[in-house]
Write a structure and sequence with these properties.
Elements (H helix, E strand, L loop, with lengths): L2 H16 L4 H7 L3 H4 L3 H26 L4 H15 L1 H9 L6 H14 L9 H15 L8
Helix pairs in contact: 4-5, 4-6, 7-8
Length: 146
């Protein structure tokens, strides 16, 4: 990818986040979106990449600055990342299935491990279930019973 391509992608992502709507509507409304991204799935993956960078940076800082409860540190980091990126988080939440299913599972595993709610040697499905419950609590939703 050239620098020109990078800047065009960044500009489209910024435009999508400045005026978010349904992803299909936004994709057709934002100039150059169809020229830069093959389809809405590719755009959603780019948006998820932006979120993942923001969240992991916040969690890394929070964990390096805390000597206390990791759950509190990760919770605060997640909330701060959401506060800094509300449109991004909303778009990802509205499109959490489909192409984003693997990305959501990765985020849940990361949350479970970063918060110390699970260990690295636990199966992925356990990490995803624990992290998913934690993410639901962060969003203010009561997780469904297993």
């Amino acid at each position: 990818m050239s620098w020109n391509d990078y800047y065009r992608r960044r500009d489209v992502i910024d435009a999508v986040l400045a005026h978010p709507g349904a992803i299909e509507e936004t994709f057709t409304r934002v100039p150059d979106a169809a020229a830069v991204f093959a389809d809405t799935d590719e755009l959603l993956l780019a948006l998820d990449h932006k979120w993942t960078r923001a969240l992991t940076a916040r969690i890394g800082l929070a964990l390096s600055d805390t000597e206390g409860d990791r759950v509190d540190a990760v919770s605060a980091a997640w909330r701060q990342a959401v506060a800094e990126n509300p449109a991004l988080r909303r778009l990802l939440d509205e499109n959490s299935g489909g192409v984003l299913a693997d990305a959501t599972a990765r985020e849940h595993r990361m949350l479970a491990l970063a918060a110390g709610l699970a260990e690295f040697d636990e199966p992925n499905d356990t990490l995803e279930r624990v992290g998913g419950a934690f993410a639901a609590l962060l969003r203010g939703r009561v997780p469904a019973a297993a």
